[in-house]
Amino acid sequence: MFNTLSDRITGSFKSLRSKGRLSASDVEETISQIRRALLDADVALPVVRSFTAAVREKATGAVASKALNPGQQVVKIVNDELVEILGGETRELDLSRRPAVIMLAGLQGAGKTTLAGKLGRWLRTERNRKVLLVASDLQRPNAVNQLQVVGGQAGVDVWAPEPGNGVGDPVAVARSGLARAEEYGYDVVVVDTAGRLGIDEEMMRQAIDIRAAVNPNEVLFVIDAMIGQDAVATANAFQDGVGFTGVVVSKLDGDTRGGAALSVRGVTGVPIMFASTGEKLTDFEQFHADRMASRILDMGDVLTLIEQAERTWDEQQQAELAEKMSEGSFTLDDFLVQMRQLKRMGSMKKIMGMLPGMGQYREALEAFDESSVGRIEAIVQSMTPAERTDVKILNGSRRQRIARGSGTTVQEINSLVERFEQARKMMQQVSRGGGVPGMPGMGG
Ligand code: GDP
């Protein structure tokens, strides 16, 4: 799902991640790479334009701010904009009437009949509703039978015209299905309708007539993710014709370029509500813009961590620490404060991985024992103020005294001092935007 797009966008971040500072041209370069990736993924041009404009505006501001590393800020901005074009908050189905009516519309082969089964199953199992599927697709020879099969798999009832009963009138079937549902106390009616391979007037008129007959709570427009640049024209035609209240993107499991999914909301303003990700009835999920954006950006926990950082960060304290770091007057006390702050955000290793220029210190980070903050605290507290300020005075006998006082070993103290020195160099380098470690000015 979105593999190529994902690789290309995340690829465009690589150069940002390794930088402590960003210039306007770094941002421009990233934006231009993202723009090409989106266009190649068949995302509609107007959507790409508004996306890149929003990212540019916010990224420029982020580069000027100093709260967190600007490369990560840009990643977060891209993520937030992706969430935005994908539709923001997930909208729930309107099931307010009884029976609530959900009508499906879309081109032939988009996946409507399959969706009827998926939705039926989902409504039954996840929403505890009694569902009736109504076969108003009388165009495609096998559609009625197919709906009966998926209805059986979904464990929900199906209303269909008697076989051999002539061609039938889909509007009449929809109407009688609704009457049936009212009579037998169904909670939700899902009306499957006919599609054509292309958009044509007759099909659209039929859909409009069905809509008028059953007055649905929701009209879900089903669109095949593989449709590419045709997505926009198709979506617009359905929006102008029958109109729809929600979008379902099907076949997101394929190695699709994903443009349809990223364009439809932007072009029509109607949110994507569900994603279909395979032929099985369980290959179906509510669409969450934020999770989809995370998948596209291959971000996993990192965004959560950035958000946690924003929540838990004490700006004032950080500003003081940052100044000490760049001055080289960073002490073990500060180290402890820093570690406690990071600890509040979660795993040290994950957090460290977000920082710029960390690659060269990865081994030291990997060796970090997450549970050691308590022991470090004990060690630091067993030191005199002078020792905390200048670890260079820590000779053998001082180390033995501290080990006894803190209930640790001399080895632990040695390793803490070593790590502290490493961290101090690293922080100083990072805060200077990638300068050379070991520059003059270090030490108290
Ligand atoms: P309809 O003409 O709109 O009713 O489309 P169908 O429901 O008959 O689906 C057309 C074809 O696409 C069928 O072979 C389905 O099995 C397949 N299909 C539907 N949804 C998905 C999906 O999410 N992923 C994949 N891989 N195939 C799907």
From TrEMBL:
Q: What is the lineage of its organism?
A: Bacteria, Bacillati, Actinomycetota, Actinomycetes, Actinomycetales
Q: Which family does it belong to?
A: Belongs to the GTP-binding SRP family. SRP54 subfamily.
HAMAP family (UniProt xref): SRP54
The protein depicted here goes by the name Signal recognition particle protein
> EC number(s) per UniProt?
3.6.5.4
Q: Where does GTP bind?
A: 106-113, 192-196, 250-253
Q: Where in the cell is it found?
A: Cytoplasm
* Pfam families linked: SRP54, SRP54_N, SRP_SPB
- Which superkingdom does the taxonomy of this entry point to? Bacteria
Matching SMART domains, A to Z?
A: AAA, SRP54, SRP54_N
Organism encoding this protein: Peptidiphaga gingivicola
